[in-house]
Amino acid sequence: MPPLNAETDLSPDPDALKSRSDAGTVQVRLTGVRFAWRRNEPDIIDIDDFSVARGERLFIDGPSGSGKSTLLSLLGGVVVPRDGKVEVLGENLSSMRGWRRDRFRADHVGFVFQMFNLVPYLSVVDNVTLPCRFSRRRRDRAEARSSSVHADAMRLLAELELDRSKLIDRAVVDLSIGQQQRVAVARALIGSPEIIIADEPTSALDEGTRERFLELLFNECDAEDTTLLFVSHDSRLGTLFNRRVSLKEINRSVVEALP
Ligand SMILES: Nc1ncnc2c1ncn2[C@@H]1O[C@H](COP(=O)(O)OP(=O)(O)OP(=O)(O)O)[C@@H](O)[C@H]1O
Ligand SMILES: [Mg+2]
Questions:
Q1: Which ligand is in closest contact with the Cα of 251?
Q2: What is the greatest pairwise CA distance in the chain?
Q3: Half-sphere exposure of residue 143: CA atoms within 13 angstroms, side-chain side
Q4: What is the pLDDT of residues 193-230, one digit of tens each?
Q5: What's the distance, Cα to Cα, between the start and end of the chain in Å?
Q6: Less Cβ crowding at N or C end of the chain, within 10 Å?
Q7: Looking at the domain assignment, is residue 49 inside a domain?
Q8: Number of domains in the chain
Q9: Residue 89 falls inside a structural domain
């Protein structure tokens, strides 16, 4: 693998980052958040105060089982804490009803799940355009960017080298894991949500594909000043982000995790 470091083309532009941190608009904030998967179990997440500013590229790492995916589920409103507030774009997700949280996520958050969560019976293109079916806002934004939602899906798929005709009409289950991962990323990016949450999005990609993938991800985020929350085991990627945290630095809860 060529050195992935702060000198590569993918590194953030310091002036752009400075102006963003000057602006300092808090996009995501956790206060007094405690979460356990089951009622009688100890908390996996216990975070006093943590926030992310608009346009930040945040890299989160931590050992397997330490709660990274759980934290992302809280940030995306997939689950709610037993205590505390999760605020995204100034809205308190913890006090929203389930359907409102789903609506909010569809409009404002592009989520790349660790297990992809693609819809198996839909084609590649239909998986990518799916968020625009649930969110008028994202449909309008995709249409503003390209001539149609379909054209915008094709643009993203082309950037991820998945636009070959023999691929796009296939059911996603017929794709390789790395290809499915790229479909999941195109689905998260379509319609330019304000926040992208990506859980190990490069784990199945080879070196060349990973670099092109990160370039696309960063370009898309820069174009819209999107906030990026990115979890990876590959700590070498951390240098490409403008902030890096280990879960243990912000989480008071100590779970038994593999080293
Ligand atoms: N849906 C769930 N229901 C019950 N327990 C869960 C669920 N998801 C995760 N857990 C538990 O929460 C703990 C943290 O898991 P999590 O998936 O957040 O870790 P992680 O840091 O993302 O790990 P990895 O790096 O392996 O993906 C683990 O003990 C796991 O068993
Ligand atoms: Mg995980």
A1: 1
A2: 52
A3: 9
A4: 999 999 999 988 888 888 888 988 999 899 889 999 99
A5: 24
A6: C
A7: no
A8: 1
A9: no
Q: Does the beta carbon of 42 sit less than 6 angstroms from any atom of ligand 1?
A: no
64 Cβ inside 6 Å of ligand 1: yes
Which residue range forms the structural domain that includes residue 162?
54-73+97-250
DSSP code for 114:
T
Cα 93 to Cα 102, 105, 107, 137, 229, distances in angstroms = 10, 10, 13, 19, 17
Residue with tokens 């799916």: 130
Q: What is the CATH number of the domain that holds 201?
A: 3.40.50.300
Residue 256 confidence (pLDDT): 54
Structure tokens that stand for 12 in this block: 């953030």
Question: What strand order describes the sheet that includes 45-53?
Answer: 45-53, 26-35, 83-88, 91-92
Higher-confidence position of 138 and 163: 138
Determine phi and psi for 198, rounding to 5 degrees. -125, 120
Q: Of 155, 108, 151, whose CA–CA distance to 131 is shortest? A: 108
Task: Scan for tokens 């790349």, then name that residue.
Answer: 112
pTM (predicted TM-score): 0.88
Q: Number of C-alpha atoms within 13 angstroms, CB side, residue 21?
A: 10
What are the tens digits of pLDDT across the range 11-22? Answer: 444 444 444 444
In a domain, 7, yes or no: no
| 14 within some domain | no
